[in-house]
Amino acid sequence: xxxxxxxxxxxLSYFLFFVLIEDVFPVTFDTxxxxxxxxxxxxxxxxxxxxxxxILSVCWGQxxxxxxxxxxxxxxxxxxAVLFRQSPKYQLLGRVMEGDVSLTIVNxxxxxxxxxxxxxxxxxxxxxxKINIHxxxxxxxxxxxxxxxxxxxxxxxxxxxxxxxxKKVLTHLxxxxxxxxxxxxxLPVILILVVLIRRRMPLTEKxxxxxxxxxxxxxSILMTT
Length: 225
Known about the structure:
Blueprint: H1 6-23, E1 33-37, E2 42-44, H2 50-53, E3 57-61, E4 73-78, E5 81-85, E6 90-91, E7 103-105, E8 114-121, E9 129-138, H3 141-224
Parallel strand pairs: 1-9
Antiparallel strand pairs: 2-7, 3-4, 3-8, 4-5, 6-7, 8-9
């Protein structure tokens, strides 16, 4: 039958050739990367020219786009009609009728990270538009900022405490130094004053005795006269 229909044989050979090329020796392209933050909506882009091609069927899968359809399908649609949706968090919020079939993941979490594939089914052999996107998830920006800021604040607080303790130690040492210096300076002065006072005391007693003796002599003279 194949020998009687060369066109059919060539067509089948052509089909098998491309199956082998795509399945056994796949052509690889750079996979676009999208970074999202947990708790936020994330949009994975997928566009086609609806004005030229018309409204087409689209499927999204949580894996690279295979030879046909989508692996691990999470959403499929044709125009505004959603034919399948694995979860309400998968939405088409773009202008679908204009060819914007980008996938929006609502309130995305770390578990949503991975490779996503979009297939737009264009009529004809090997005409489908296939887009693979690698999604990377990160913590919310404020969470990351807090995780960076808190250690910095704690470090500053510890530094302030260390500086305060050091100042207390220095203050104590300064007081001790001042006390020692005062003792060194004033102790000799006190000793000198004590010595001077003790030296003056005998002179005072001697003067008082001399005065008493003079008074007694004077009284004796008066009595004899």
